[in-house]
Structure formats: structure tokens, C-alpha cells
Amino acid sequence: MTARTVQLTAALHRYLIGTSLRETGTQRALRRYTQRLPRANMQVAPEQGQFLQLLVRLLGARRILEIGTFTGYSALSMALALPPGGRILCCDLSEEWTSIARRYWKRAKVDRRISLRLGPALETLKGLKGRFDLAFIDADKSNYANYYERCLRLVRRGGVIAIDNTLWYGRVIDRRDQSVDTRAVRAFNRKLHRDRRVDLSLVPIGDGLTLAVKR
């Protein structure tokens, strides 16, 4: 039998966090604050935030697009890794959740690196020009394919589109689950698997993070 990805028990996950995670005090404070909120499961895992930071540095990213911001942990993580003059454009619908994000971005002194557009993301994306180095999609699942197509136009060749929740809490393999979101994630994963415009890897970090590199 060939080797496969190890299953993370709670103890092994604690070990992963203890030997890998490097959070600032503001990141930790935001994560703990968000954990007390009703929709806390919408926040990316801390190791995923750190992985996004690494992508920013590997790409030398200066222009980043985020679709779905919630309380701002992923944007904060990426902003901390940006070089001087780098910028993130965040798209979200919620004034309530993003008001928390703004507070912690300011506390971390990265608020000037982040622009926030409130409103339907597809409308925001229509008006964007230029080239982005990295796009991160973590929003409503029914629009994943639409967000992806728009991002593919906006990301430069060699740039990365990162898509969250592509393992969808394991529901992607539960054929009894025919909910709208689960079916959308399944269809999206099939679409990307066939898409020769990108190089592809689904990384089993957090709830599954797909990386698509534009050819």
C-alpha cells in the first residue's frame, strides 16, 4: 500500500499547532474572540492562515483578492506577510462581521494594507481591473464556480487561486447529503479536476484547501 495523508487525531493536531503555528498576539486574540461567536466555524483554521501567509511570501504577492472575509483572520494573516506597498482587496456582505475585522486589522497596524468592499462579490469583481497574484475564495458555496471564473480572469499567469472548504466537513463523500451547498462543492471539485487551464492540488488542511495555479 502506498503512503497516504495521516489522519489528524485531536492529540496530533495539538502537536501540529504546538510545533508549527506562529501567531502574533493580535491573531490569537482575534481567533479567540471569534471562537465565542455563533458562526465561529466560518473562521479558517490557524494553521491554514499560516499556510496562506507562506503562499504570499512564496509568490512575492503584492496584490491579493479575498472573497469572503468574516471576522478577518485570513486577511490579517495575509496582510502581515505582504511586502511594503502590498494590498489586499476584501469582498464581503456583512457590516457586522467585518466591523470586527476592521478593529483587529487596525490593532495589528495592517488596516492601511486592506481595502474592504461591502456588497455582492460578483458585482465587485465585475468592476476590477489589473492582475492579482493571489485570490482566496471562502464564501457562499453555490457561487464558487462563478467566483472562480472571475478570479481566473483577474489572476496573473503563475498566480494562485486558493479555495476553502473543498472537503466540506467530509460531506462531499456522503451521498445521502444532497443539500445545495454540498452538491455545489462536489460539482466545483469535479469542474476543477477537469480544468486544464490550471495546475491543481487539494491540500487536506483545515476543511480542505484547493490550490489552482494559472497556466
| Order of strands, widest sheet | 3-2-1-4-5-7-6
Q: What is Rg?
A: 17 Å
Sheet with the most strands? 7 strands, mixed
Uncertain runs: none
Arithmetic mean pLDDT: 96
User: Helix coverage percent of residues?
Assistant: 40-55%
CATH superfamily: Vaccinia Virus protein VP39
Number of helices: 8
Kindly estimate the percentage of residues that lie in beta strands according to DSSP: 15-25%
Structural class: alpha/beta
Gross CATH architecture: 3-Layer(aba) Sandwich
- Total count of strands: 7
Task: Using the coordinates above, name the CATH class.
Answer: Alpha Beta
User: Which descriptor suits the 3D outline?
Assistant: globular
Terminus-to-terminus distance:
33 Å
> What's the CATH topology name?
Rossmann fold
SSE order in H/E notation?
A: HHHEHEHEHEHEHEE
Number of domain units: 1
Explain what you see:
- The structure is a single chain.
- The protein has 215 residues and is an alpha/beta fold.
- The chain has a single domain (10-214), classed as Rossmann fold.
- The protein has eight helices and seven strands, in the order αααβαβαβαβαβαββ.
- It has helices at 10-20, 25-35, 46-59, 73-81, 95-107, 121-126, 144-154, 180-194; strands at 63-67, 87-92, 114-118, 132-137, 155-164, 198-203, 209-214.
- A seven-stranded mixed beta sheet has the order 3-2-1-4-5-7-6, sandwiched between helices.
- Strand 2 (87-92), helix 5 (95-107) and strand 3 form a beta-alpha-beta unit.
- Helix 3 (46-59) packs parallel to helix 4 (73-81).
- The chain is globular, with a radius of gyration of 17 Å.
- The mean pLDDT is 96.
